[in-house]
Amino acid sequence: MAKGKSRRRSVDGIFLLDKPLGLSSNAALQNVKHLYNAEKAGHTGSLDPLATGLLPICLGEATKLSAYLLDADKRYQARVRLGQRTSTGDAEGEVVQTSDPSAIGRGQLEAAIPRFLGAITQIPPMYSAIKLEGRPLYTLARAGIEVERQPRQVRISQLRLLDFDGLHFDFEVACSKGTYVRTLAEDWAAAVGQQAHLAALRRTGLEPFDGGAMITLEQLQQAEPGAPRDGLLLPPGTALRGWPQLTVDEVLAHRLSRGQALLMEAGPAGLTAVFDQRQRLLGIAESDGAGHLVPRRWMNHAENKPELG
Question: CA 157, CA 137: separation in Å to the nearest integer?
Fold first, then answer.
């Protein structure tokens, strides 16, 4: 008799995966979900298969926070290969234009940095997931079709040249959601009269997380199931570090869990992370700045199942 599928676990937390090269974000997500035998899992913004690094994966109730992390600022380290522009903007594509980088020096690259700091506009690459009439641009690009793309505004808060060997340069960038590091690499090279493509990309931060706490799939596989493996998860509340926070007692927590608004001392308008007196995240509420606090997204703790959807 065939064995039935094992029952999925109700496990809540955030796993900071160091995504390996060549694995899609969805495949990485499914690996982590399988190893935890979790009922629910989601990530907070994908990485291309050719990129490595920080991919926060939310399990269980923490999946309710994924949407709030999609707008987070990010930090990357990248390597650029000068002298060759490719069809995809990275090492996967065919070389479509060339240049001679022999006369380029570190000083020229550093002198171009200020023009990319602050609010800048980028033209999204054809090999991107942006949709045109329901079709991702990359499907058109693969068919040899190029269409006009509207410039998008992004923000670069930090840009630093790390190394230069005459053919490659390495840099670190802190940027807003929607920034195409491939496009930044091409535009930076163009500013010094060069063609280029992205040779390697690693995400080292996604607010409020940094790469120092990343764990590889191999490390996760080696951890014993149960408490040792669960101990690698961060509490859901860590995703909202830096948010306005409110601690409530059981009575107020129950009212919020039933969808009831609270009348409280007026605070700043906006979203607030609500915790109980044990410092567990209860959910997200919104203040109107006039003393009303309304629950928006609530966690479903086992001993206190709320009615909110």
Answer: 28
Instruction: Collect contacts of 98-101 with beta carbons under 8 A, ≥24 apart.
Output: 98/195, 99/193, 99/194, 99/195, 101/166, 101/167, 101/194
Q: Which of 115, 121, 112 shows the shortest CA–CA distance to 179?
A: 121
Q: Which residues are catalytic?
A: 48
Asked if 78 and 161 touch (Cβ cutoff 8 Å), the reply is no
pLDDT tens-digit series, residues 30-46: 999 999 999 999 988 88
Is 308 a residue whose pLDDT tops 60? no
CATH architecture group of domain 243-298: Roll (2.30)
What is the third-level CATH fold of 13-71+209-237? Pseudouridine synthase (3.30.2350)
Element at 281 (helix H, strand E): strand 281-287
Instruction: Output the CA angle 149-155-157, nearest 5 degrees.
Output: 150
Q: Give me the CATH topology for the region 74-206.
A: Pseudouridine synthase (3.30.2350)
Q: Is the pTM of this model over 0.90?
A: no
How many Cβ atoms from other residues are within 10 Å of residue 254's Cβ?
Answer: 13
- pLDDT per residue as tens digits for the range 114-136: 999 999 999 877 666 666 666 66
Backbone angles phi and psi of 295, in degrees to 5? -65, 135
